[in-house]
Amino acid sequence: MILVTGANGMVGSYVKEIFNDQIPVLTDIPEMDVTDPERVFSLFARHRPAMVLHLAAETNVDRCEKDHDHAFKTNALGTHNVALACQKYDAVMIYISTDMVFNGRKGKVHTEYDDPTFANVYGKSKYEGERAVKELLNRYYIFRAGWMIGGGPEKDKKFVGKIIEISKLRSEIQAVNDKYGSLTYARHLVAGIKKIVKTGYYGLYHLVNTGEISRYDIAIEMMRILKRKVTVVPVSSDKFPLPAPRAESGAMRNMKLDFLGINPMPGWKEALEEYLGEWEK
């Protein structure tokens, strides 16, 4: 049985379908407030999971920048609590981390062997979660994801979801072309996790759809796929100032999975087209 924290989010929306043969127990706040160790241990005692997929996190990057305590309490201490419970009940832990542990320059594609250089508080808080998992457990998987897409109209309030809606109303849209990253389709992420954890090859992995891209690249490809006659104008990130700084490049490569011959992730264009097809349905 697999216990899932934060199951009501974008990634969690695919777990029941993809892990349907493992009787997933889907939890979310307030049922499992990961910052409350008593609640965490009580849930573990009730279900005694063999594996835990830890998705619960504060993913609002700008909120983390404004409220450091909230960021570290949720992403670092919350992960510490779950890891301790996994230790006590001998459960394998799967932790989802982020590309924002990196603060690279254009053209820099990060691998698992690069040292983190944090872009913001969110990235630092998620890395502290990684440290807790590594220090407390021997059997774990850490998967770093990139710019997340998925969930459809109900869950997707991020860039792709916004562009889909804005492009219905405007003949011209603007998209940033001086920040780079890697796309991660949540469905592919969950399916990839299921495949990799079957190997028993524990450790830290990057798990992104391949390719270094900008938001501008994504918007251009979206208009092509959706067949919308909308002009996409490239703009500097200065056009949209945000509380939290973003890396010039947080792009990643699934190097370890490439080396092992088990990289399950297709390219970003294929992922985007599949997701937009899901959205249209």
Describe the structure.
By secondary structure, this protein is of the alpha/beta class. It has one domain (2-155, 181-211, 251-265): 3-Layer(aba) Sandwich (Rossmann fold). Helix content is 41%, strand content 17%. It has helices spanning 15-18, 37-47, 61-66, 68-89, 121-136, 152-155, 159-166, 186-197, 215-226, 255-260, 268-280, and strands at residues 2-5, 25-26, 51-54, 92-98, 140-145, 147-149, 172-176, 180-181, 183-185, 203-206, 213-214, 231-235. The strands form four sheets. It has a six-stranded parallel β-sheet, sandwiched between helices.
Structure keywords:
12 strands, alpha/beta, Rossmann fold, 281 residues, six-stranded parallel sheet, single chain, two-stranded parallel ribbon
